[in-house]
Amino acid sequence: MTRAQLGLGLIGIGRPWPVADRAVPPPDQVRDLLRYAVASGIRFFDTAPAYGMSEKRLGSFLHTLPAEARELLVIATKCGEIWTPEHGSVIDHSPEALTRSVARSVDLLGRLDLLQLHQASSEVIGEPLVIDTLRQLRESYGIPYLGASVKTVEACDAALTTGVFTHLQMPVNDTRPDLVAWARSHHQAITIIGNRPFASGQAADRPGERLAYTAGAVGPGIVLTGTTDQTHLAETLTEWRQRWRPVRGAADKAG
Q1: Would you call 115 helix, strand, or coil by DSSP?
Q2: Which of 253, 249, 245 lies closest to 215, judged by CA?
């Protein structure tokens, strides 16, 4: 049976998260974290323009990797929301904003493996112009996979109905039993990326059990852990490997 793989969510390397006064790590800590993650077998990295400096920092690291090492990685980003310290989050799903966002992401990150629609409500997913723009961007930049980052069951259903998306990212933890149930019912039809397994730090006890809970819901999908600390990542990897065999190799790219 194909099991879930562990990926790394990178909001914390680019902006204060999950609380406003959380310090963003310095460049050397970010570099060491990413280097350790790759060396430890993590192959899926999730970023976004809404994550502040995250895309820029990840891109700088990727440019230091040999081509064969980069080829093994799955780099997922998003479009539809941006964040700056001055203005906070700005959501814009217009074709012009989506196009600008993806052009910037490609410039920072190079090749994109998965493009996700950020803040994807059922209403946004139901807009034909949004879906057409994503299709055009996929074609223009040779992006293998399209996904949506969702927060409701209604958005999950809408995304699946389009037939456009190969991946759905959503919170999968015991504070969202509705999304857990949806993921369990649909993980054979679409790749589920389960984020916030520890509910953004609210459920940090029993980490192994919580990782296993999320992994069980996403099936052959991806469990995203978010951290800025190499020691914390090492502890998470230890808990993970005690329960699931690691997924390795290019054959497992993008879930």
Answers
A1: strand
A2: 245
Q: Reply yes or no: is the peptide bond before residue 18 cis, omega within 30 of 0.
A: yes
The yes-or-no answer on residue 36 being catalytic is no
How many domains is the chain partitioned into structurally? 1
Which range, of 21-25, 90-94, 115-119, 122-126, averages the lowest pLDDT? 21-25
Report d(CA 195, CA 208) in Å as an integer: 15
pLDDT reported for residue 2? 67
User: Which residue matches tokens 């919170």?
Assistant: 171
Q: Does the global pTM surpass 0.90? A: yes
Can you give the residue range of the structural domain that contains 192? 5-252
Q: Which residues of 130-153 are buried (b: 16+ CB within 10 A; e: fewer)?
A: bbebbeebbeeeebebbbbbbebe
CATH number for position 225: 3.20.20.100
Q: Which residue is catalytic, options 51, 141, 145, 213?
A: 51
